[in-house]
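Figure-free illustration: sequence to structure, shown twice.
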Amino acid sequence: MHSFEFFIFLMKSVFTKKSVRTLTLGEKLRNLRSEKRISLGEVSRMTKIQVKYLECLEAGEYDKLPVDVYVKGFLRGYAQFLGVDDSILMRLYEKEKGIKSNLERVSSNKEPKKEKIDISPFLITPKVLGFLAFSFFFLGGIFYLYKEIDAFANTPKLIIINPAQNSSENDNSVIVEGITDKDARVFINNQPILVSDEGRFSENLALQSGTNTINVKAINRFDKIKYDDLVIQSNYEQEEIKENDVQKEEVLAEQNKIPIEVRVDPGPVWVSIETDDNLVFSGTMLTGATQFFLANENIVISSGKANATYIKFKGNDIGTLGSGDEPIRGVTFNKDTKY
């Protein structure tokens, strides 16, 4: 009977030791605390160890704990509170931490860490590029069609920047500036005017003394027309050189100047004047408009309509530049010109 009881005691001792040896540090701490029926909150209040660190010790999450010097301090305080030998807890901690470090090192050697590939939800693929290209051309086609329909249905844009309606000018010319559609043609008093690629136009217009009516017209490629009529008052009074004005003739002779007067009738007529190889006027002259010029060496005149351009040279009326209504260019007057 005694032998049987000894055998039972021996077996219990063996199994008990085996069970204790398999317990981790965290399990030991949790079991000891549970036997005393103490919560982590009470342990924290008594040991001054934060609850989160106590939870990490019991869970074996050593990587979430601070450096070893603090952890060993936690273990000493916890051991004293539980009434156990702190050296046992220290050895278990060092052993388990070493095992974890070895396992992590072996795992990292066997399985290289894979870099996380950040795949954007807006990854550009050939399919996406094709879709974008198709959308671009599709929308471009719609926009172009809209512009064509708008140009066909509406008159072209025509904005006069200068001069203002019913304005007064103290000179015998004015610059007409404006904006129209890029592909439109512009006419001032039925004379074609150059339009830039941006749809801007500018023309120097000779005025007659008194009231001048300027008609500006824009025509798009569908022959839609937009008109704008300007009324300009010219207060300029040209001094004419009369044949019997001996004093003025003598003054000009003394100054060795070449005088010339250009008048248009009927207008409008495009006229270009160069004095001594310098362009001094290029623009449209209205009916009755007169321009007076002086030069030292020569005057060169070009006109869009020869038989509507009248010349007075050195006080003498010499008539028109030509007999036909065709353009004429490069008519030169100098000191040796005789009429």
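We now fold a second protein in the same way, so the two outputs can be compared directly.
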Amino acid sequence: MVASAIKHHSIHQVRNWTQAELLKHVLDREEKRWQATLSQYSENEKASIYKLLTIATLSGGLDLEHDENHVYDALNETDIANSESELERYIEVIKQLSGNPSGSLQPDIFAEYFLLQDSQYRTGGFTRSLKRSLVTAQELSPQDTHAFISRAAVDYTSELTAFKWWKLLFTKANTEESNELLEELTASAFNTISQLSLHGERHTILDHWLPTLCALEDLKSKARAINYQGLLNSHLGNKTIALEHYQTADEIYKKLGEKSGESSTLNNISQIFKARGDYETTLKYLQQSLAIQQEIGDKSGEGTTLNNMATTAHARGDYEIALKYLQQSMAIKQATGDKSGEGVTLNNISQIFKARGDFETAIKYLQHSLTIRQEIGDRSGEGTTLNNMATIAQARGDYETALKYLQQSLVIQQEIGDKSGESITLNNISLACSARDDYKTALKYLQQSLAIQQEIGDKYGKGATLNNISQIYRVRGNYETALKYLQQSLAIQQEIGDAAGLCVTTINIGHIQWENSQQKEAYKSWAEAYQIAKKIEHAQSLEALTGLAEQLDLPNGLEGWEMYLND
């Protein structure tokens, strides 16, 4: 495609084109060639040929070599041709148009673009003709047709056309009680949802894909869809709504005796309480999940739960217990050959050593994690590990290396469409810039991160980014603007119940008040932060408040805050 564009335009022009502009150029040129090929055909015949091209492309090509009878039987049921000889002639034409013996357009990204555009401007939209083409393509090859629709939904996230295609086939299979097709379409939808989630398309999933799946009579798939509603709402910061969905899914799984689904849902419920800073309830649900996984022999799930128990212990500053859980998880991951899980666990172990200040050991675990993730092609995990390697380099004062790792991470996240990861990396790049006193560039990256978080509805990330923006204005001496951003951050964190975030923001508000000579208000803010941090055992905030107590000459570190509160 690129070679074709360069042939007719300068390389400098093409370099600045968007993907849509490049695809439009290719489609325009192809259509001129097609028009020449089809010049001898009537308008009705052209419409039939385009319809056949659509069916061949949707179904992954006409397999005339191995399944000729099935292909002709399916196509003869359509209104494409009046006779078999006419159909044979049309098949030869689409081979010429596509340049492919199977009559299917390639590559996939161009084929998807053609069909999405075709459904809009050539057929006048989602017509009866296009609907029949979808059904015929599915009859020829259900697996290839469903895979094409899934790819189109993920590659063109701004379009809902592919979703409408899927829903048509899904509704038809449901109405006709075609259980095999319904199962395949349901599986395809969950795969699509997984990919769309990675791209940050949470609202598209919640508004369109999941409501259809939640109406299924198959209770197991219904519970899975409701569980997914919980996950996405949790990512969006809607923790109360998420908890309601999880509890509904859990009830269904219990009713079905579906232990695996129940343990997974209990794990998800635990993370709601972790986000609220209620670590005791978090561990209660994780222990319930672990007991079920051990009962049914779900080693993979057991390893994941142990990882979550470790991150909870880590948040409380209990590094020995966290490390113990991670080592247990690692043994399971290695025994079961779970390379992906091993990469995650190595990454988490590194964070224990980082928290202890043992950067050399931390980087060793991160490099091991990176090797595994690159080996298995885990691009998302690779981006995360590079991010963590950057934080180690930054902690050592090696900002150049930190930025190198962060730029590598950013490229990966942009390539795979990981919006959430991209926003985190932009935040981390801003911190590296701030450490070099380049506050203008740091602010630019934070604003980019904030824009992404607003786009995907990431309230947790937005609260943290507003906090980080405030620190740019604070260091510049613009306390009024800094306080404005902190108050915005505080409002979000109170709304979503982000107790850990509230600790950090309240401490920072106290700093602004102190610098504004509002010592009484500052003490009050820091004492409030202490109460939250003590309740949730937030190690990072308690450590900061210990240092602050020493600077303020409060006796015995954290006991000084207790004495202040009791005065």
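Summary for the second example: The chain has a mean pLDDT of 90.
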